[in-house]
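Notebook, student rotation project (T.W.).
Task set for the rotation: take a protein with a known small-molecule partner, predict the structure of the complex, and write up what can be learned from the model alone. Partner molecule chosen: zinc ion. Sequence and SMILES entered below by T.W., checked by me.
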Amino acid sequence: MNEEQVFAIEDEMDRVFATWDQRWRNVPDGASCCLCGHTHPFTLMGAGRVVFCQSCIQEIWGKQRVQGQHLGRRPTLLSPVPVDTNEHVLLTDLQRLWRAAGFEPGSAFAIGFDVGAYIVISGNFQ
Ligand SMILES: [Zn+2]
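Predicted structure of the complex:
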C-alpha cells in the first residue's frame, strides 16, 4: 500500500466517523421515531420533536421497509439477506468502516465481518 492509499483510507475513516457523529448530534437525547418508536440515533432523521426512522421514511415514500443486504458487499458468494431498512443503514455504515480500512468487497474479511454484524444487528433494532 502506498502513501496515497493510506491517506485515502484515513480520509474515508474520518468521513465515516464524521457521519456517525453528525447523526448522533442531529437528534435530541432519547429521541424516537414518531411512527414506530425506533430509537437508534444512527437511523433517525428529523427536526425538533418530529423524528422519523429510515424504515418509516421508506414506507412514507411508498417503498418496502425490507431491503436486500449483500454481506461482504458485491461481489460476494452469499445471496442478499432481507433486513429492515434501519438495519440496512447500520450494516452499510459498518461496511464503510472495513472498506475504509482497505479490505476489498467479497474478501474473506469483508464477508466474515458482515456476517458477524448481521448476527448482532438483525432483529435487534426494529
Ligand atoms: Zn419508524
